[in-house]
Amino acid sequence: MTRKCTRTEREPTIALINIVFLMLVFFMVVGTLAAPLDGKLALVRTDGIEATAPSDALVIHPDGRMSHMGAPVGSAIAFFDTLPHEARSRVRIVPDRDLPAHQLVTLGRTLREAGAGTVVIVTERGLQ
Asked: GO biological process annotations for this chain's record (predicted)?
């Protein structure tokens, strides 16, 4: 009497899991976007640095007054007219946090109508 050996069909899921895991490890190692920093490198600390507005920006005070590089400016159009032509494509304004929003929106519209390509509002986080 001979016994027949019955083989059961095994699913190749373990082999598939191993291949996927190895591919994951491979792409994690190869996919490094930037070289690591030198371990002895000490980065600059910015804890005590006071942020100041960019010099080419129009500063708007809480009462609506405007200034550029410390000098008072009569209107947004007057400020825009003093800009060199290459600076008119991107006009930066630094509003005080207490300036009413409707005044800031009106100022932005005025600069766009005057010919500004983009009006960028510089915020506190952008200064740091």
From this structure: protein transport
Give 20-30 pLDDT, tens digit per residue: 999 998 888 77
pTM flag (> 0.70): no
Q: List Cβ neighbours of 56 (8 Å cut-off, separation of 6 or more).
A: 83, 87, 92
Residue 53 CB burial class (10 angstroms; 0-12, 13-18, ≥19): middle
Is residue 12 one of the residues assigned to a domain? no
Looking at this protein, which amino acid is placed at residue 7?
Answer: R
Total number of domains in the chain: 1
Using CA atoms, how far residue 34 sits from 23, 24, 25, 31, 43, in Å, is 20, 19, 17, 9, 17
pLDDT digits (tens, 9 = 90+) for 60-71: 888 888 988 888
Q: Give the residue numbers spanning the domain of 116.
A: 58-127
CB contact set of 72 (below 8 Å; sequence gap of 6+):
65, 66
- How far, rounded to the nearest angstrom, does the alpha carbon of residue 107 sit from its chain's CA centroid? 23
- The closest alpha carbon to 106, from 76, 74, 78, belongs to 76
